[in-house]
Amino acid sequence: MDLAAKLDSLIPAMMEEHDIAGVSVARIEDGGVAWSQGFGVKCAESGEAVDTSTVFEAASLSKPVFAQAFLGLVDAGRITLDTRLSDVVDEPFAPDDPRAAEITVRHALSHSGGFPNWRGEEPLRTGFQPGSGFQYSGEGYVYLSRVAEAMTGRPVHEWLRDAVLTPPGMEVSRFVWEDRFEDTATPGHGWEREVVETWKGDTPNVAWSLHSTPTEFAKVAIAMMDPPTGSTRVITDGTRRESLRPQVVAEGGISWGLGWGLATHEDRETAWHWGETNSFTCFVVVEPGERRGLVVMTNSFFGVRVSQAAVRVAVGYEHPAFSSSLVTVW
Fold first, then answer.
1. Which domains does the chain have, with CATH numbers?
2. In the 3-class helix/strand/coil scheme, how is the chain assigned residue by residue?
3. pLDDT for residue 234 is more than 90
């Protein structure tokens, strides 16, 4: 049984076991989308079927997309990986913390700047000297988005559209809600399997606000593979390789590059990322040297179970991400 047939059998079984409404998957082989399929329904109440054009909240899969665009600014010579963000943005991002002024592009992209994921009600502060450790942080990406706006003079979602979404043909994907999504977007399903309305904001957050489909997101993953792939490149091959080089150790078996989690299993190297909200879960895994990968998007809080099982079948082993403290497997 080939991989597509295995996934076609496995995914519905996992959805039934964990009461997951809808899933969409794209499989990458030889640097191209070899198979894609929608499963289940957009909404548990309406019963409308998921297909490959269904738009999901990509959650933190937003981060590697933004990272690729920002690395294009590095390639263009407009900024370096070791430029301090405070040298570009006039207004301090964390005014009560002098250490925050030392955060560089490299630190923010690799989650080594020291910020928490989100600041909460307390003033934003670093937890360690930038560059000396790992702390997954959406705040660092928001800081980078302010740098991007300062450099380009444009709203970040418009710049991202032109810099990283349109060139490879991601005509559906956007970092803000658009009215055209009304017919194609799926709501999420929460802890009690209740329907949760999709986010329809017009203010982007580059750490989580991407709306996309697996077949479109696969174009981002394909761009990170070893050439030739026939894909449209947003960054040079040298910068691509640097983005996939470990910049900081996250925890046992996992390090972080510039926008991507990295893991090695028996000499097989993967780049990966996950995304989760209170009603959507997503996962992407790429084997750059083999030019293959898998993108899974679900409209369920419990969808990580589908991603875990599908990735296990796709790569042939239990991926370290699912046993890490980063990905919660409910």
1. 3-323 (3.40.710.10)
2. CCHHHHHHHHHHHHHHHHCCCEEEEEEEECCEEEEEEEEEECCCCCCCECCCCCEEEEECCHHHHHHHHHHHHHHCCCCCCCCEHHHCCCCCCCCCCHHHHHCEHHHHHCCCCCCCCCCCCCCCCCCCCCCCCCCCCHHHHHHHHHHHHHHHCCCHHHHHHHHHHCCCCCCCCECCCCHHHHHCECCEECCCCCEECCCCCCCCCCCCEEEECHHHHHHHHHHCCCCCCCCCCCCCHHHHHHHCCCCEEEECCEEECCCCEEEEECCEEEEEEEEECCCCEEEEEEECCCCEEEEEEECCCCCHHHHHHHHHHHHCCCCHHHHCCCCCCC
3. no
